[in-house]
Amino acid sequence: MQADNQVIFATAVFLITYAFIVSEKIHRAVAAFCGAALVILAGIVSEEAAVHYVDFNTIGLLIGMMIIVGITRQTGVFEFLAIKAARGAKGEPVRIMASLALITAVLSALLDNVTTVLLIVPVTFAIARQLQVNVIPYLIVEIMASNIGGTATLIGDPPNIMIGSATHLGFMDFIINLTPVVVVIYVVTIFLLKLIYSKQLATRPELMNNIMAMDENAEIKDHVLLKKCLTVLGITITGFVLHQFVHLESSVIALTGAALLLLVTRMDPEHAFQAVEWPVIFFFIGLFVVVGALEEVGVIEAIASFALEVTGGELLPAGLLILWLSAIASAFVDNIPFVATMIPLIQDMGRLGGISDLNFLWWSLSLGACLGGNGTIIGASANVVVIGMAEKRGVPITFMAFFKVAFPLMLMSIVIAMLYLMAWYVLHSTVAMLATLAVGILLALVLGRSGKGKEPAVHKTGN
User: Fold this and answer.
1) Rounded Cα distance, 368 and 363, in Å
2) What integer pLDDT is reported at residue 462 of this predicted model?
3) Which end of the chain is more exposed for a tag (fewer CB within 10 A), N or C?
């Protein structure tokens, strides 16, 4: 196949695959796998290159955390936390909403947002049933909290896992650079959601007493297993914090944690591996190959060159362009394939445009893709999971019902993120400028003293 035809074919396969993923006419894992098979069969990507394009660090991290969370789920600790939060809120519906949102955000940062909503949503239905209130406000708040919380850490949201793997940014890099703005966005978003839904969540005192009568301790099914799971989970998270210093990939930490938990619990591996969402894993594998085909034929490089022309190769305009593009795009298409496409594009922008500090662009991509997922019900995997669980329980949430609440709040969060990135850029630029100025002054002083020291010798030679 000639070069021009390869470009056309690879682009067509990518767009068709993307269309099937968005439309959900067929399962997204099947769509991605078929796209990968086509580009390999057409000779655009060789078998060896296909393996190279698959990011096994992302795959390993996902599998390891899925095993750990799957085993931990059996202890009932997540139900325990949800009921304890509801009782801590004294059964008051709006306070319960805020409490569940906080648990969802924290767990989404420490585990991952898809797993978190799978654990929290069933308990939410039980609580709403006891209070006899509309469950939809709770579900919308939990969707938004999961995506906001997942933005804060390396392991919280699949886009961050992919960015961290591609750039070798560590767990603490995400904590230091993203958590401050995520906390601000979370507080503002939950405050506004409480104002929006406060009138819809009125209930009677006797129903609030039903919540207070619930026993969270009864939810713990296996105390011995719980201790083992929390110990291994603590060791694993500590490993994430230290992985840059011990020079281990995050996937190694996650898989080691999973292996340790399997060892100490002596759980049947066949049963434990059922917790791994294999369709998600194979979706990632296929997607990496399809995007790799675009990289192979030069499409990614061409788009990167165009982006550099538009922004003039300046860091701040490039970062803000990526932020808003990621946010709007991720609101209407799943953020995982979008980020998979953007990662090599940003890498090429750095290579072609000579942008030395790409971290600013990575933070822009992370904030845009993760927060943008809050814009619509199809914007992120967690959204789709919650909507599906609600439909199975006879509580459909329409696109527009979610959109009219979530999209304006998503735009607000992106404005806050934009202000944060601008401040981040100015601060780092100022620090760099002051450092350069200090070095210049130091060199001037050194050279000045050196020059003064040489004056007598020059004078003596002149005589």
Assistant:
1) 8
2) 46
3) C
Does the predicted TM-score (pTM) go above 0.85? no
On whether residue 346 sits in a domain, the answer given is yes
pLDDT-derived band at 193 (thresholds 50, 70, 90) equals very high
Q: Is residue 105 part of a domain?
A: yes
The answer to whether residue 267 sits within a structural domain is no
d(Cα 48, Cα 265) in Å, to the nearest integer?
38
Contact 258, 68 (CB under 8 A): yes
The structural domain count of the chain equals: 1
Reply yes or no on whether the pLDDT at 222 is more than 70.
yes
Residues 73-82: what's their mean pLDDT? 87
